[in-house]
Sequence to fold (361 residues):
Amino acid sequence: MLTPLLTDKELITLMRLIQEARRIVVCGHRSPDGDALGSAIGWTLYLRSLRKTTNIVMPNPFPDFLRTVPGAGMTVLYDRQPDTAQRYIREADLIFCLDFNALSRLENMGETIARSQAKKVIIDHHLDPDTSFAALTISHPERSSTSELVFRLIDQLGGFDAMTSDAAAALYTGMMTDTGGFTYNSNDPEIYLIISRLLTKGIDKDKIYRNVFNNYTESRLRLMGYVLYERLRFLAGGRATLFTLTREDMARFNYIRGDAEGFVNLPLQVRGTRLSISLREDTETDIIRVSLRSVDDFPCNRMAAEFFNGGGHLNASGGRLPWPLEKAVRTVEQAVEAYLPLLEKSEGEYASHAAPARGNR
Fold:
């Protein structure tokens, strides 16, 4: 048995909101990742099993490697299909906000959601949700992913038996991608109980892994080598790293959406490295996209909030900077300097193996 996610009062509230709804929209954050997409598909298929008219609307496209997720084709993109997206939102009387904690994560679509008279429900695992616009907030930062939350909701609502293989595959994809293949934020034994139950739906978890993590282009592989050899810098005596990715770099290697996915995790393979930061020039706006990853107890979410207009989880966070790349690099250097005491704190067996300082490229 899984630990119940909702109290009896919350469960009754959610059931009433669904029962009274005629048209429902499920949405996720800008640049949806595997968890945003997987949880949206899984929840939408559940709602459709209740004969509820339900549509998925995302602010903009998800990475190409997620096109293999069953149900991905259901997604309407706000920036590509604005008339359809706005009509769905306008006609909805219930909107589920999945995998984000504030409407600002939707960028332009956030204003349309805010103007909607529909009741809103947050289902999310990020810290500090903005509850001001929601009729019900289901927020559990201690859980691995929003897809895990959606599975628990479906199970608590009695919908597991009717769950389809497509819904199970989507939810597994979300859980897998948000934990780096179950390598972080995944020590709760109940996660593996959920996986075992998803497997009873006939999903091929090995194929799902290959479709997500082994489904890139030759250009992506060459871009990875370029980033590691030419762009990677080691800071704080090897305890932190930084690499940059410019529009020129992306054009040179025929970049498509999602090609840099996972790059920020690679420097953490170096012994003694506790923090990895990437700066990428956005291809559509004049901002710098910031990604942070860390190990052990280093709080990259605090650093993201303090220096990069962002936030996230303890070991996986993001942000953005509205200024040129050169200034963004200086901001990273300042952030690393400010957090040097935490980077240098005792790390058990790793403390004596910290990587030596490297020269900067």
Remarks:
- The longest strand covers residues 275-281.
